[in-house]
Design a protein that fits this description.
Four copies of one chain form a homotetramer.
Chain A lengths: L1 H19 L4 H25 L1 H32 L3 H6 L1 H18 L27 H13 L1 H25 L9 H12 L12 H17 L1 H20 L27
Helix pairs in contact in A: 1-2, 1-3, 2-3, 3-5, 6-10, 7-8
C-alpha cells in the first residue's frame, strides 16, 4: 500500500510538473500545446461571431467548440487533482479565468444566447505571458514588471487627477454646450471629456457653439501637455531599473566603491581584482 | 469668564483640528466623510442631468440635493467660525470652490434653470488631493509636484509656441480651404488646427481639397514631432527630481546642509569630511 | 555739419536701440507695444473673417485694419531707415514676415478678395519669441533651442522614415481597399495613412473591407510604437543639455576632477576650494 | 585570353563598384540618379491613380511607366551580372523589392488590371536609407539603429501585451454593445479596440449604449497610460546608447579595449592605468 501510495504520488507529481511547471520538455510542450488550443478555440469563437460564417458553418463551429470545452474541462479537473491545495488554484486569477472560460458553454445548454459569453475565453490569452517566463525574455519581462510596478503609485495619482479633471471639465462643458449637440447629460459630457483628453476624438460628440469650441480647445491643449506626465514617470522608473540592473551587486573589495560595469574585471578606481 | 473663553477656544480649537487638519483620527474621519458626501452629491447631480432619471426621480433628487446643500452650508459656516482669519479661507481657492458649490442651489430659488450650475459642485472633487497628503502617497505627490512645477516655465514656452503655430496654420488653412468645407472663419480654422495638432481629430471639420489635405498632412507630421517636446521636458525634470531624491539622506555633519552627490567625500559647502 | 551728422547718427542710433534692441526701457516698451498692436490687428482680422460680424461691423473693421496697416508701414520704413544695412533686414526671416503682413492690404486696393490674405499677418506673431529673450526665460529658451537643434538631424531621419512608410502603406492600402470607400487614388491613400499613423484619425476616410481593417490595424499599432522614437530622441538630447548646463565649466584646481554642482564651494573629492 | 579575362573582371568590378558601392563619385552619382528615377516613377504611378489625370494623360503615363520599367529591368539584370553570387542578391530584401517593382508592369500585359500593383514600386523608396550611409548622417543613423534594435525584445513583449488586451477588450465590448451599433462581430470589435487604444479614434464605430461608453472610457484611459511604456523603453535604450557613445574615445593603452566610464582611472579589463 505504501508503494502504491508512492506510485500515486509519483504519478501526480509528474503530472503536476507537466501541467504547472515549464522546466522539463513535457512541461514546455504542454504549455505550447495549451496555448495553441486556446488560440484555436478563440479563433473559432471569433469566426462564429461573424454572421455570414455562422450561417454557413454554425454546426461545425458548435462541434469544435464543444470539443475544446471538453478538453479544457479535462484540463481544469486535472489541475484540481494534481495540486496539493486545489482551492488555492481555484481562487487564483488564472484559476478564475480558466473557470470563466468553461462556464459559458455549459450555461448555453440552459440559457439560449449565453453562448456569446464564450468571448470571455479570450481572457485565457493571459496565459501567453507564461511563455516569457522561459528563456531569453525572462530578464526583459522582469525589467518591465519592476519598472511598471515601481511607478504604479505615481500613475494612480496621475489617473485620479485625470479623472477629477474630466469630471470637472465634463460638467463645465455640460453647462456651456447645448443639450441638442450631444452633451445631453453630465455622464455623457464626461464621456466626451475622456474621448477628448486622451486624444482619441471619435467625433460622435463634438462641440458646436463657439464657446464650446473654445473650452474644448483649452481641454485639448491640456490633454496634449499632461500626456507627458505618465511617460515621464515610466521613463524615470525604467532608467532607475536599468541603472540598478547594471550596477548594484558589485562592490570593490579594495576601496569599497560601487558603480562598476557588469563586465568589469578590475576596479576602475583602485585596480583591485573584482 | 476667562475659563469660559478658554473653553470656547478649546472647543473652536478642537473643531479646527477636525475640520482643517488630518493628523487625528477625527480629522481623518471628517475628511473621508466629507469626500463621500461630495461624491454622493455629485452622483445625484449627474443622475439628475439624465432626462429619463430626472422625470422619474426628479423630486427625490431635489430632496437629496437640498439635504446636501444644507450639510455643505453648515460645513461652510463652521469653517468660517473655527478659523482665526475667516477672510483668508474665503479668498483661498478651496474657499471659493466651496462657495461656488453652494450658490447654485440658492440661486435656483430665484432664477429657474440655474440649477444646472450645480454641475460646478464637481469642482469640490479637488479636495480629493487632500487624501494624498496622508501616508505613503506624500512623497510621490511631492515628487510629481516638484517635477511639474520645475518644468512649468519650459512648458509655458512650448504652449506659447503651439498657440502661435495654430494661429498661423489655422490662418493658412483658412486661405487654402473652401469656406463651405467647415473652414468658415479664422477662429473656426484655428479650432480645427488645435484639434489636428493635438491629434484629437474629431473629423467634424476635415480638409476636402487636395491642397488642404497637403497642408493638413504637413501639420499632422509637425504635431507628431512636437508632442515629443513636453514629454522630454517633464522626463528630464523628473529624472533631476529623482536624482535629488537619492541625495537627501546625506546631511553634512559640519554645516547640516543636504544635497550632496552620492560619491561625494567632502561637503561641497564647508569641506567637512562626510 | 559734423555735429549735425553726429546728431543725426545719434538720432538714428537711439531709434535703432528702441526698435531693434530690448535692453533699455524704451526698447522693451516698443517691443511690448508692437506685440499688443500685432495681437489687436490679428484679432480684427479674425473677427472680420466671421460672416455675421463682417456684415455688422465690416466698415469699422476696415478702418481699424487700415490704421494698423499705416502704423506697420511706418514701422517698416523706420526699420529700414535706422539700420545700417537695410537689405539684411529685408532678407531676414522677420523682415520677410513684416513685408508679407503689409502687402495684402495694399494688394486689396487692386485685386478685390486678396484681403483674405491678411490672415498672413498671423505670421508676425513669431515676434512673440522676442519676449523670451528678456529676463528669466532666456536660459530656458536657450536650453530648449539647444536640445531641439541638437536632435534635428535624428528627427529628420525619423521623419524621412515616416514619409517612406506612409507612401508604402498608402500604396498598399490603395490596392487593398475599394476605390469607393475613399481610397480613390494613391495620394488620397497616403493622406489617410498620415492621418492614421499620426493617430489624428479624422474618420473622413476609414477602411471598410475586412482586409482593409486588418492592414489599418497593423498600421495603427506601428504608429503607436514609432511615436516613441522622436520622444526618445528629444528626451535624450534634453538630458544631455541639462547635464552640460549643470556641470561642464567647473574643474577642481586640486584634483582636476569635474562634475561639481553649480552651488558647490569645495571639491567633493578632495575638499579644495573651487 | 588571360588579359581578356582580366579586362572582363575589371569591367565587372568597376560596374560593381558603381552599382553596389557608394565610395566613389560614380557610385554616389548612380545612387542619387537611381533615387531620382524611383521618385519620378512613383510620382507617375501616383498621378496615374487619380482618375481625372488618368483620363487626360493616361497614354503619356503609360509610355513613361514602360520607360522606367525598361530602365529598372536593365538595372536589375546589371545587378545580377556584376555580382559574384547573383542568388544572394535575388534573395536579399532589396533584391526581392527590386523584382516586386518590376513584375506588375509585365503582368499587366497578360492580366488586365494588375497594373494597379505598380503601387508596390513605392517599396523601392526603402533605398533612400542608402543615402544616410553617406557622410554626416552615418553616426546618427547608427545611433538610432542601435537604440531601436536594443529595445526590440521589450517592444515585442509590449506589443504582445497590447494585442492580448485588444482581443480581451474587443470581446468584452462585443458582449456589452449592441450588434447594430457597429460591434457586429468579435473581429470588428477588436478592430475598434485597436482604433481606440492607439488613440486614432476614427469614429466609424463608437459606443452608443451607456454601458458601452463606460467600458470604452475605461479602455481609453488604459490606452492613455500604456502609450508611455514604448516611449520609456526607447528613451532608456537611447540614453544607454548615448552614454556608450560618450565612452568610446578612451582606449586602454594596455589591452586596447574601449567602453570605460568617464571617471575610470584604471582599465576595467586589465587594470592598466588609463
Amino acid at each position: 500500500m505504501n508503494t502504491e501510495n508512492e506510485k500515486n504520488k509519483d504519478w501526480r507529481g509528474k503530472l503536476h510538473e507537466i501541467i504547472y511547471e515549464a522546466n522539463t520538455f513535457a512541461g514546455k510542450a504542454f504549455d505550447v500545446g495549451l496555448l495553441i488550443a486556446i488560440f484555436a478555440s478563440i479563433l473559432v469563437v471569433m469566426l462564429d461571431s461573424i454572421d455570414s460564417y455562422h450561417q454557413k458553418y454554425g454546426t461545425l463551429f458548435s462541434v469544435i467548440e464543444w470539443t475544446f470545452t471538453g478538453l479544457f474541462t479535462v484540463e481544469y479537473i486535472l489541475r484540481l487533482v494534481v495540486i496539493k491545495h486545489p482551492l488555492n488554484y481555484v481562487k487564483s486569477p488564472l484559476g478564475i479565468v480558466d473557470l470563466l472560460a468553461l462556464i459559458p458553454s455549459y450555461l448555453s445548454i440552459v440559457f439560449i444566447g449565453s453562448q456569446s459569453l464564450l468571448a470571455l475565453r479570450a481572457l485565457r490569452l493571459m496565459r501567453i505571458f507564461r511563455i516569457f517566463k522561459l528563456g531569453r525574455f525572462l530578464s526583459e519581462m522582469k525589467f518591465l514588471t519592476v519598472a511598471i510596478s515601481g511607478s504604479l503609485r505615481k500613475i494612480s495619482i496621475f489617473m485620479l487627477t485625470v479623472l477629477t479633471l474630466v469630471v470637472i471639465l465634463g460638467s463645465v462643458m455640460y453647462l456651456v454646450e447645448n443639450k441638442e449637440n450631444g452633451f445631453s447629460s453630465i455622464p455623457e459630457s464626461i464621456y466626451w471629456a475622456i474621448v477628448t483628453i486622451t486624444t482619441v476624438g471619435y467625433g460622435d460628440i463634438s462641440p458646436v457653439t463657439p464657446m464650446g469650441k473654445f473650452v474644448a480647445s483649452f481641454m485639448m491643449l491640456i490633454g496634449y501637455a499632461i500626456i507627458a506626465v505618465p511617460t515621464g514617470i515610466i521613463t524615470t522608473e525604467m532608467a532607475a531599473a536599468a541603472r540598478n540592473k547594471g550596477f548594484h551587486h558589485q562592490v570593490c573589495p579594495g576601496c569599497g566603491r560601487e558603480g562598476h560595469d557588469q563586465d568589469a574585471k578590475f576596479c576602475k578606481y583602485c585596480a583591485t581584482k573584482l
